[in-house]
């Protein structure tokens, strides 16, 4: 009997993924039926993205697993109709893209690039930036994406501190964890990068209190998720100068509404949720490997802990 795989994502992705998934499933030696529509009670696996329109999994009575195309799964992890394993996306291409984006934006702040791009007024003010070794960068979240970014920044000699829920040991990175660790991680951070998932425990992790733990003029880079930051508190901190500048890629409401104060703030850069994205050639391999595992009775990769929400 073939394995039935329902592709439930943005329709524009179907022509991209259909050949890649077909090739991967064939290479795994599986007989399969892959489609964007099929009777619900025949679906074995769902390849899932939130914009595919699937929200009630109850009719999918023989479903074995949901395989997310997205790394962030906050829109599905609390779905009560989903009772089978949920795997999130860990994709080499997505990780590479995020590392490049984070390093680029950290370097923008570190080197003071904006000063020399915007000030073409004849001012000759020779002031070289410090070396990376003298710059403290803090990464909140040391998972797949946070650790890769932390390692890349450490390779450039930045003074990197990372923060996670559980203790870690990563060569070249000062690792902190838990509530006390957060204070220690933020206290010296001139540049903070948020690469945490959106869960009940991480929402508003940067708030009126934690923003004051940072050195005055610190910069914030958020490619994680919008709810990680208390927006009112950040705007107040930007207006007081406690925070020097923020680069925000993700927001509570996306697209960011046209009248949101972030758009007009002189010390905010808004990017439209483009820090990184799942890359189909590598992501399709991850999906196919998980289907192969499911059919072989082997444990799935990258399973979400539904209690923790990531
Ligand atoms: P992971 O699940 O691999 O890592 C999450 C990290 O956050 C882990 O280090 C985890 O700690 C830590 N964490 C979770 N909860 C807490 C907590 N309560 N306190 C402290 N640390 C905590 O996720 P990824 O690295 O793959 O992705 C991170 C996020 O990036 C995604 O959830 C998504 O929201 C976002 N993203 C954004 C994209 C964009 O284009 N803007 C693209 C892709 C992802 P521990 O290691 O101890 O478990």
Detailed description of the structure:
By secondary structure, the chain is of the alpha/beta class. It has two domains: 108 residues, Rossmann fold, CATH 3.40.50; 179 residues, 3-Layer(aba) Sandwich (Rossmann fold). Helix content is 33%, strand content 17%. The chain is built from ten helices and twelve strands. A seven-stranded parallel beta sheet has the order 8-7-6-9-10-11-12, sandwiched between helices. A five-stranded parallel beta sheet has the order 2-1-3-4-5, with helices on one face. The structure holds NADPH dihydro-nicotinamide-adenine-dinucleotide phosphate. NADPH dihydro-nicotinamide-adenine-dinucleotide phosphate binds next to helix 3 and helix 5. The site of NADPH dihydro-nicotinamide-adenine-dinucleotide phosphate has 29 residues, from helix 3 and helix 5.
Could you write a compact summary of the structure shown?
The chain is of the alpha/beta class. It is built from ten helices and twelve strands.
The distinct ligands, each listed once, are: NADPH dihydro-nicotinamide-adenine-dinucleotide phosphate
* Mean pLDDT, all residues: 97
Q: How far is the first residue's CA from the last residue's CA? A: 33 Å
CATH top level assignment of the largest domain: Alpha Beta
Strand count, sense and barrel status of the largest sheet are: 7 strands, parallel
Described by the principal axes of the CA atoms, the overall outline is: elongated
Task: Give, in spatial order, the strands making up the sheet with the most strands.
Answer: 8-7-6-9-10-11-12
Question: Can you count the helices?
Answer: 10
Total count of domains: 2
List segments where confidence is low: pLDDT < 50 over at least 5 consecutive residues. Answer: none
Order of helices and strands: EHEEEHEHHEHEEHEHEHEHEH
Provide the CATH topology of the largest domain.
Answer: Rossmann fold
User: What Rg is obtained from the alpha carbons, in whole angstroms?
Assistant: 21 Å
* Name given to the CATH homologous superfamily of the largest domain: NAD(P)-binding Rossmann-like Domain
Structural class: alpha/beta
Helicity level: 25-40%
Topology, number of strands = 12
Q: Which CATH architecture of the largest domain?
A: 3-Layer(aba) Sandwich
Strand content: 15-25%
């Amino acid at each position: 009997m073939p394995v039935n795989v329902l592709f439930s994502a943005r329709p524009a992705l179907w022509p991209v993924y259909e050949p890649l998934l077909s090739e991967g499933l064939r290479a795994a030696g599986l007989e399969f039926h892959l489609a964007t529509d099929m009777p619900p009670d025949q679906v074995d696996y769902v390849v899932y993205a939130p914009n595919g329109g699937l929200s009630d999994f109850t009719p999918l009575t023989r479903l074995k697993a949901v395989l997310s195309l997205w790394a962030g799964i906050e829109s599905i992890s609390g779905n009560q109709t989903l009772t089978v394993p949920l795997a999130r996306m860990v994709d080499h291409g997505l990780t590479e893209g995020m590392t490049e984006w984070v390093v680029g934006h950290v370097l923008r702040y570190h080197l003071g690039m904006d000063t020399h791009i915007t000030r073409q007024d004849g001012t000759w003010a020779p002031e070289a930036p410090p070396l990376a070794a003298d710059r403290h960068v803090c990464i909140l979240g040391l998972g797949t994406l946070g650790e890769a970014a932390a390692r890349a920044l450490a390779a450039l000699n930045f003074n990197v501190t990372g923060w996670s829920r559980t203790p870690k040991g990563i060569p070249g990175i000062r690792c902190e964890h838990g509530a006390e660790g957060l204070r220690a991680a933020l206290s010296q951070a001139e540049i903070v990068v948020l690469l945490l998932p959106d869960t009940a425990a991480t929402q508003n992790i940067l708030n009126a209190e934690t923003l004051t733990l940072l050195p005055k003029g610190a910069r914030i880079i958020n490619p994680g998720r919008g709810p990680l930051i208390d927006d009112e508190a950040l705007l107040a901190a930007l207006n007081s100068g406690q925070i020097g500048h923020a680069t925000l890629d993700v927001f509570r409401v996306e697209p960011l509404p046209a009248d949101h104060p972030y758009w007009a703030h002189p010390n905010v850069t808004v990017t439209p949720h483009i820090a990184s994205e799942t890359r189909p050639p590598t992501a399709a391999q991850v999906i196919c490997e998980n289907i192969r595992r499911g059919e072989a009775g082997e444990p799935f990769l990258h399973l979400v802990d539904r209690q923790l929400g990531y």
